[in-house]
Here is the input.
Amino acid sequence: MSEWISVEERLPENRIAQLVWVPERRNIYAAYFDKEVGDGYWRVFGSYGRAVEQEVTHWMPLPDPPQP
Here is the structure.
């Protein structure tokens, strides 16, 4: 199982779906980090690129899909 990674430690590869923790909302989202604009920002995956407006503090890779 993957561990949560602090955004202060490192950021993920550009535009690859991840799970992210948003403490202000106490929620986990599927999102990706977009490094193409300014210092970069998180976008909600599958939501037409809507930006995550609250601070993301941790991320982790998506789990592997189920095996048949």
